[in-house]
Structures are given as C-alpha cells and as structure tokens.
Recover the amino acids of this structure.
C-alpha cells in the first residue's frame, strides 16, 4: 500500500480524534472507531488501504495471541501451535522450528526486550519528573501548561515524531 494512502488514513484518524475529544481532553476508543469508520466509508478509494491496514492488524493480533508463553501446568513455553516471530516478516510454527529459528527468535526477543525496557525507563522518568513538577507548581492543572512554563517546551517540526505535517 502506498504511503499516500497511509497518510490519508492517518489524517482521517486525526480528524476523527479531534471530533470525539471531550472538553477534558479524553478520547473514548469506541467513539473514535465510530467516527473513523464514518469517514472511511465516505472515501471509497481508501477502502483497499483500510482493508490492508485491517489485515495487518488481524495478523499482528494473531501472532501476539500465539506468541509462546509459559504454561501453568507444564511450566514450559512450547506449544506446537505457537508462532515464533523471526524478524523481517518471517514467522515459524513452533512445532517446525529449527535450531537456527530458535537462535534467531531468541535474538529478536532479546533486542525487543532491551528496546522495551529502555523506552519504559524513559517513560517512567518522564512521568516522575512531571509528577514532581506538578507538585511543585500546583497552579498548573494541565500538562501543556507545565511543559511550556516549567520545561520550556517549544513546538518544532513533527519530523522526529513520525507525525504527518498538517
């Protein structure tokens, strides 16, 4: 699928999110889904892109639900119907995994765990810093105020965030 279609779908998602955002800044996912569905249905040329995105989501969910996990009874990870994600879009049924597959899966898993732990540590530190700043600056009731006045946030381009420019 073309990046143009992805960008158009993301634009529709942004419009839908803005439409359903409550005054307190909350977005309820069911409302977002309904608003986005309505927008996609109004643009027939985006149907194929939306279906492609849906197949990606269903495949990702399929793999996540079949990812090896510890069994309560056996204590092991093995189940013949589990799926090992080997990287670069290649998966293997666990029952058919080779020694090379096992090594590759372990490597991918290790890299993913390191990335997740690093990102989580950064998020936790960010949350702690902002929580402390809220406590020290009780006049600020929203994060935007705190970021602008305490942490001196200035909006630049969205390039490094992988957002689409308006």
């Amino acid at each position: 699928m073309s990046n143009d279609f992805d960008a158009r779908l993301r634009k529709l998602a942004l419009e839908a999110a803005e439409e359903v955002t409550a005054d307190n800044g909350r977005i309820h996912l069911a409302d977002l889904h309904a608003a986005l569905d309505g927008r996609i249905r109004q643009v027939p040329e985006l149907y194929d892109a939306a279906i492609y995105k849906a197949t990606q989501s269903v495949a990702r969910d399929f793999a996540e639900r079949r990812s090896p996990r510890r069994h309560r009874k056996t204590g092991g990870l093995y189940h013949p119907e589990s799926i090992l994600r080997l990287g670069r879009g290649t998966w293997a049924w666990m029952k058919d995994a080779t020694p090379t597959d096992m090594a590759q899966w372990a490597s991918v898993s290790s890299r993913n765990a390191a990335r997740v732990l690093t990102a989580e540590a950064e998020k936790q530190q960010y949350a702690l810093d902002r929580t402390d700043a809220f406590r020290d600056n009780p006049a600020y009731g929203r994060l935007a105020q705190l970021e602008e006045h305490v942490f001196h946030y200035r909006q630049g381009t969205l390039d490094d965030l992988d957002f689409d420019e308006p």
User: Anything to note?
Assistant: Residues 34 and 65 are 25 Å apart (CA to CA). Helices lie at 3-20, 29-41, 47-65, 99-136, 143-149. The radius of gyration is 21 Å. Strands lie at 83-87, 90-93.
